[in-house]
Amino acid sequence: QLQLAESGGGLVQPGGSLSLSCAASGDNVTFYAAAWFRQAPGKGREAVSCISRSGAVTNFVDSLRARFTIAKDVAKNTFDLRMSGLTPEDTAMYYCAAASDLMYGYCGDYMYEYTHWGQGTQVTVSS
Fold this sequence. Notes:
Blueprint: E1 3-7, E2 10-12, E3 18-25, E4 33-39, E5 45-51, E6 57-59, E7 68-73, E8 78-83, E9 92-99, E10 116-117, E11 121-125
Parallel strand pairs: 2-11
Antiparallel strand pairs: 1-3, 3-8, 4-5, 4-9, 5-6, 7-8, 9-10, 9-11
């Protein structure tokens, strides 16, 4: 059974960068599509970006496209999210999610598509 654990969150100043990592255990990340979601205080959970089993990447938020990068690290067995140019609007709990039953080249932005979730890591952008 795949288990996910996020790390790398914290407090960062506006304009700064963070790299989030989602460590997978119990199975190999090559068998999974994955996505990063975030939930800001008082708001719903939104999909940020996803990566399919084939490695195809989809970004769901236009304003993040140039600043956030999702990647799959097979050697480390992680799904990573690299973030730069952070603003206070990026403050949120960030969650990784994975699914093994999506089509090979597909990943989506619906929460129900993902059967495995981490507990989240908090990112706070503030001066």
